[in-house]
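Changelog note: in this version the structure field was regenerated for every chain. One regenerated record is shown below for reference.
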Amino acid sequence: MVALAAKSQPAGASLDIAGVSHQFDIDGKALPVLDDISFSVQPGEFVALLGPSGCGKSTLLRLVAGLEPPRAGLLREDGEPITGPWPSRVVVFQDPTLFPWRTVWNNVALGLEAQGILRSERRRVDAAIDLVGLSAFRSAYPHQLSGGMAQRVALARALVNDPRILVLDEPLGKLDSLTRITMQSELVSLWQRSGFTALLVTHDVEEALFLANRVIVFSDRPAKVKADIAVELPYPRHRGDPHLADLRRRILGLLGLDATW
């Protein structure tokens, strides 16, 4: 399957977010969440979103995924307006949400099964499982997996659909620190091999700098873009790199946490 093999050209789509504002209606009152958010993501780019808890980062991911429309502004994928969910945009959440009665193979196959193409595209399931390093666990059930392995299954379930934009909502947030470090490296490898565009929400400054080409820092709710920071370092990156340390201090300062470092 070509889509899960290494690519010479990015397979990702461009993403444009233009003047996006959003609010929730709670008990008859408007709660502004996003305030005039604008930025663009190039095909195959990896962009991380950082900001205070509850500022609206995950809400923006929901809008990008097409799970709900913005109150104002426009989102585009490859120049076309995003008006609802689409197979080219796949979300990976913090919780793997695997079906406990289905094996790894059958969990990964869900998307193709829903599209009615599983019979003719079974090889894509095997390719996705191989890509995340779970070949020996095709027949295992979720309760037989570690937390990191379960999250690999969730990534395989996303990748089997050949996403052009992978939307990552704190996908490593519930893992222990050692597993999280391992999974960060694996996520970079998956991104480099598959070529999708990645949009990641994380609360971990070091994780954002280790993974992303760019880090966008949001303000408190309603979120505005405070900074758009390029991370101009080659991969693989080393956590002790002085440039990463400088960027970490800068971002912590933007978040009002520089006094703690």
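Spot check on this record: Residues 1-9 have pLDDT under 50 and may be disordered. The first helix runs from residue 57 to 65.
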